Amino acid sequence: MGRPRSEIPYEERMLGYRDKQKRRRDNYRSLGLCSCCGSGLDIPGRVQCSVCIGKAKEAYSRNLDRRRDYQRAYQRRLKSDMVEAYGGECLCCGETESSMLTIDHIFEDGAEERRGFMGLGSGAYRTLKKMGYPKDRYQLLCFNCNVAKYHQGVCPHSGKAIFDQKETP
Ligand SMILES: [Zn+2]
Ligand SMILES: [Zn+2]
Ligand SMILES: [Zn+2]
Question: Could you say which ligand is closest to the alpha carbon of residue 140?
């Protein structure tokens, strides 16, 4: 060898490391030991001991929690971006509480609309963001006003919101 560690490129170092790990695992496995820590196997048919399997499971669920937290933060950001882009309040009644606001298709002519207002989730927010938050077909409404619109075609508040005049059969 002779080469100082710092002169070996990272990829090469990682390759050497992985290679060493793989050789160690193969060695343990050929000896009938836990491929992870080299202690005796205690679960028939598994190549890892119960301790290592437990640790792996724990790490997996920790990662899952972290991924879920990240997802939630991302959804919150998407929602608040959307709310801000559409004026921050229900166009009909002026509700500003973000959790009560939802995006409304002004004209009911798509598959999503047929599913009703509950069908509009974070997927729709992402699409809106990609489209640059178009204002001609979408408006911000609170859930109350949105429900009123879907059931009666118009909200009793009749604020600045646009309601589709088309008769729904
Ligand atoms: Zn083990
Ligand atoms: Zn409202
Ligand atoms: Zn209203």
Answer: 2
Q: How many CB atoms lie within 10 A of CB 145?
A: 29
| Domains of the chain by residue range | 7-68, 81-152
Q: Which ligand is nearest to the CA of 160?
A: 3
- Distance (angstroms) between ligand 3 centre and the Cα of 94 equals 8
Lowest mean pLDDT among 4-8, 87-91, 139-143: 4-8
**Lowest-confidence range among 11-25, 76-90, 121-135?**
121-135
Please, where are the H alpha helices in 31-162?
A: 50-85, 111-114, 122-130, 143-152
Task: Identify the nearest ligand to the CA of 90 by its number.
Answer: 2
Residue 63 has pLDDT above 50, yes or no: yes
